[in-house]
Amino acid sequence: MKLWGRANSTNVRKALWCAFELELTPEHIEVGGAFGGVDTPEYRAMNPNGLVPCLEDGALVLWESNTIVRYLARQYGAAPFTPDSAVAWAEAEKWMDWASLAFAEPFKQLFWNRVRQTPETRDSEAMERGRLECARLMGIADDALARRAFLAGDTLTVADIPLGCLAYAWFSMPIERPELPHLAAWYARLSARPAFQRAVMTPLT
């Protein structure tokens, strides 16, 4: 098994974290960003989008980070981490897609301007709009986590993977954050996991 993508990508972190939770050890090949390599004919033959991550598992080639997480869980996982019914999958995938769709755009505005731009080149208004919208959305997760330890139940599941990777940046950036005690407790539980530490808690760049 090979996983292509730079380790500082949120989407690559998802795939690596899932793999490590399942005690898989894919060969990790750094491409994308400063590493380049995603515009080569060989890489584009695997992923015509030229994005990361990309997973090779035998003859299977997959792109799209949430799809990779779902595949790894179904192929190599077991309940409770891997949902065991259509209802449980729907509950988990709701949170996976919410994090990657509703949360992703405001997070991009916040992260890009706060971490990847200099004070002189930042769009401060876009950064603040992103921060406020991320805070509102994190409130939705906090409300759900008031009733259970993890997003889809009492144990870690694939539901937690996408938002967990984004939460690492949310809690690491020097920004104003609302008091969301249930979200903070959930993040502390994630941060105690060796697989999360190994795959996700790497420098923000």
TrEMBL record:
Start and end residues of each GST C-terminal domain: 85-205
Source organism of the structure: Larsenimonas suaedae
SUPFAM superfamilies assigned: GST C-terminal domain-like, Thioredoxin-like
Pfam families (UniProt xref): GST_C, GST_N_2
Family matches, as InterPro entries: Glutathione-S-Trfase_C-like, Glutathione-S-Trfase_C_sf, Glutathione_S-Trfase, Glutathione_S-Trfase_N, GST_C, Thioredoxin-like_sf
Protein name per UniProt: Glutathione S-transferase
Domain of life: Bacteria
Residue intervals of the GST N-terminal domain: 1-80
